[in-house]
Amino acid sequence: MVRDTGEEYHDRNDMIRDLHVHGYTQHLDFEVMDVPNIINITYGRDVGYKIEQEHLGEDIENISATELRNDISNNVKNN
User: Which backbone phi and psi does 51 adopt, to 5 degrees?
Assistant: First the structure.
């Protein structure tokens, strides 16, 4: 997942090309998805603090980065 920050330095094609160079296949080993740029966890002097939760949908929220890292690590070890 890539945070959509609107900054110019991010180049999706370069990122995908780099993953291909390292042996990964798009749509098989990885997908590239933009996610909102979560920037607001705020507090203040008025009534305390305010923390807003972003909901990205059940499919995305069920993704486990730990499981993905373990899968990648296991694939690297086995190749």
Answer: -125, 125
